């Protein structure tokens, strides 16, 4: 039983070569770089999602304010989110400046919710064009129904579009609500 000397066992496989260690470090560096890039991209996406959520909340709040003050706003009104919401909410200037690239536009459209549209009226039907309903107008019952429907129920559709200042044709957020026109408010309780 011969015991081999300790230096004989270690001389054949003393450890990793310099090339193997460098190769392992290169693989580790590539994987670390890829992980850092993935984390960076995910952080950017998370930041964009938070900005979109905050913009939606701002637009919803501003839309509620506009609807509450609907008599002060006309069809086609435009404004800046930073100015209109920032001043109303009392945002500090540096926080309001984050939204300086966003603008809003209000559209008011009179719609007919029930009844028929008057040909002289600019109101459009709530569910599209009702010109197909004119087939029965030749009968006596059809004409009496049309005469009774002259007192149609109208609604105002308020639409708020939020867009980037540099791309006004591509809205980021579109909010829409239906309300009775100001001349109809309160008339339901008097009947």
Task: Produce a short descriptive summary.
By secondary structure, this protein is of the alpha+beta class. The chain has helices spanning 6-12, 18-68, 81-89, 93-96, 140-148, 187-190; strands at 78-80, 102-114, 124-125, 153-164, 167-179.
Layout of secondary structure:
Elements: H1 6-12, H2 18-68, E1 78-80, H3 81-89, H4 93-96, E2 102-114, E3 124-125, H5 140-148, E4 153-164, E5 167-179, H6 187-190
Parallel strand pairs: 2-3
Antiparallel strand pairs: 1-2, 2-4, 4-5
Q: What does this molecule look like?
A:
Residues 130-149 have low confidence and may be disordered. A hairpin with a 2-residue loop joins strand 4 (153-164) and strand 5. Strands 1, 2, 3, 4 and 5 form a 5-stranded mixed β-sheet that branches. This protein is α+β, with helices and mostly antiparallel strands and 191 residues long. The relative contact order is 0.11. It is elongated, with a radius of gyration of 34 Å. The N and C termini lie far apart (118 Å). It contains 6 helices and 5 strands, in the order ααβααββαββα. It has one domain (19-190). The longest helix is centred in the N-terminal third of the chain and has 51 residues, at 18-68.
Labels describing this entry:
single chain, 191 residues, alpha+beta, elongated
Residues in β-strands, percent: 15-25%
Q: Kindly report how far apart the N and C termini lie.
A: 118 Å
Give the count of structural domains: 1
The best one-word shape is: elongated
